[in-house]
Amino acid sequence: MRIGIIGAGQLGQMLGFAARDLGFECRFLDPADSPPAAACGEVIQKPFDDQQALQSLARNCDVITYEFENVPVAALQHIADSVPVYPPLEALRLAQDRLDEKKLFQRLDIPLPGYRAIDSRDDIAAAAAELGLPLVIKTRRFGYDGKGQFVVRRIDDIDSAWNTLGPQPLIAEQWVPFDYEVSSIGVRSVQGEIGIYALSHNVHVDGILRNTRAPVDAPRLAARAAAYVHSLLLDLDYVGVLALELFVKDDALLANELAPRVHNSGHWTIEGAATSQFENHLRAIT
Fold this sequence. Notes:
Number of domains: 3
Structural class: alpha+beta
Helix content: 25-40%
CATH architecture of the largest domain: 2-Layer Sandwich
Shape: globular
CATH topology of the largest domain: D-amino Acid Aminotransferase, Chain A, domain 1
Number of strands: 14
Largest sheet: 6 strands, antiparallel
Oligomer: single chain
Radius of gyration: 19 Å
Distance between the termini: 8 Å
Order of helices and strands: EHEEHEHHHEHEEHEEEEEHEEHH
CATH class of the largest domain: Alpha Beta
CATH superfamily of the largest domain: ATP-grasp fold, B domain
């Protein structure tokens, strides 16, 4: 079994090590000169949307997966007819646009903070009036680790927010004075088997995850988060590992974002679970 992985970073490397333990071979696509995953497989050093490189990967692999969610969906659609690509491209598409992601949560009755689509400076002013201040303005696409964000704390900040992030499509999110952040990681196989890991407590500094502790000693919250992940896995006809990040406020859970991939908050599963998220992802997609 040969697995093609888009991205050869840290998560790709961890997938590669797990694949080696299972007797699988990995081949990666990544433009970086010295990516971490080069330690566990051949790396095609081409851009992620290079059609010739993707076609080569598809021809020489039994299944394709990816380690991060900013892979161009259109590029993967060209190879999806010739080789299975997991997680499914619809899940990837939804995760790449924060507005589509919020609509998915709403449709599945997963609670979330208030939000508004932003296409102009006046839209920010209207969102501030409706949702209150502070207000978090984010790019709808490509933001990660706190990038592509602006916190509007006063009406005077509206012009700065638009000048900093506009005129690209944006989203305004209600400020949540949360108690702490958690993530629930689930996995679903090609055959439809589902597993959910213990709820994890995450601490971020400057938008970057610093530490994770699991399990969270809150059975009712854990059960509710697991139910949300279960509904996402079924609705998306999902295959692979999926992470749902949530805010905890009092006894409420509010969805923040989903990641259609193995997740940094799941590193603890390597030593802390019978089967790591990396091994389970590979088992699920093969």
